[in-house]
Amino acid sequence: MEGRKKYKYNPETLSYELQRPTLRFYLLRILIILPVSLIVALGYYMLYTEGLKLKTPRTARLEREYNNAKSGLELLNKQIAQSEKRLENLQLRDNSIYRNIFGMEQIPPEVRNAGFGGSNRYPYLEYADNSKLLMTTALNFDKIMKKAYIQSRSFDDVERVAGQVGEVAKCIPSILPIPEDTRNFRWSGAFGYRKDPIYGDIRMHEGIDLTGAPNSPVYATGDGKIESIRYEYNGYGRYILVDHGFGYKTRYAHLNDALVYEGQLVKRGERIGLLGSTGKSTGPHVHYEVIYMGRPVNPYNYFNNNIASNDYHAVILGGRQ
Predict the structure, then answer these.
(1) CA distance 269 to 261
(2) What pLDDT was estimated at residue 3?
(3) Going along the chain, which residue ranges are E strands?
(4) Alpha-carbon distance values, 164 to 172, 175, 290, 302 (Å)
(5) What is the pLDDT of residue 175?
(6) What are 170-213's pLDDT values in tens digits?
(7) Which has the closest alpha carbon to 122: 110, 114, 130?
(8) Predicted model pTM
(9) How far is it, in rounded angstroms, from Cα 173 to Cα 175?
């Protein structure tokens, strides 16, 4: 339906003429309708959001997305915490079992947990909504990633050493440093606390003593490398320290002479010194120690007690080749 038309009488033409709206009329109309529309829209919005406590569809959608993201971060933190517990269990087994079996140094906690103290690592998250949750999540994620990387490298090392298990068997000190058919052979001192034969007080004896005839040959008890040859007047006397690798070292003390040099590679059953009574000693014998991971251990636990005399001498012959 057409809108009402307005006519105006023209005295000059003595007739009614159609009155057409001017530009000024349209501008005035816009200036009136636009503010009124804005006021009505604002009032409707205030009534919808403040009066009725309702949310616009867009606001409701954004809040849902925000809450979903927050819940996702909280769930991720829980999963990271669970994964970290599993990783800590792997680290414990790695240090206590896997690396121990092959005589490898344990990885200390300060290495596994290094690089996460000090200054704020995530300044770009400080002004975000829920910045604390975001920064905690980022830190936890970075920590577990680094720990997993260190553990992965550790397993690589264990795998490499495990591939040398045959070499480990050759290096473990498993025979006596002097054969039991040595002249004047006798077990003269055990590992552990005992009364010191010179000072008379109770002291830890960190090896075993095997008596024998002076200048009887002393043999390497496993493959290794001569780490040092020293002389202590009030202690070991002349001694040889052999590094067998894989965490094992052996010491042969009170020797009359050393038949090897520092840095020399030796085999099990190879002659390395001559039995004597140098240093703090009451008679000809060899003081023999097994050192594992830096701590003295009972050598008796490593001896192959089932080895026969002829088999021992076969090992000695093999060490000479």
Answers:
(1) 16
(2) 56
(3) 7-10, 15-18, 186-189, 192-195, 202-205, 208-211, 217-219, 224-232, 237-245, 248-258, 265-266, 271-275, 285-292, 295-297
(4) 13, 21, 21, 19
(5) 92
(6) 888 989 999 988 889 999 999 999 988 888 889 999 999 999 99
(7) 130
(8) 0.58
(9) 6
Question: Among residues 22, 23, 17, which one has the least CA distance to residue 5?
Answer: 17
Burial string for 39-78 (b: 16+ CB within 10 Å, else e) reads: eeeeeeeeeeeeeeeeeeeeeeeeeeeeeeeeeebeeeee
253 φψ region: left (φ > 0), alpha (ψ -120 to 50), beta (else):
beta
Taking 50 as the pLDDT cut, the residues of the chain under it are 1
**CA gyration radius, the chain:** 44
Q: What is the predicted pLDDT for the residue at 53?
A: 59
Nearest to 251, CA basis, from 271, 277, 226: 226
Secondary structure (H, E, C), 18-64: ECCCCHHHHHHHHHHHHHHHHHHHHHHHHHHHHHCCCCCHHHHHHHH
Amino acid at 198: I
- Cβ atoms of 260 and 229 within 8 Å: the answer is yes
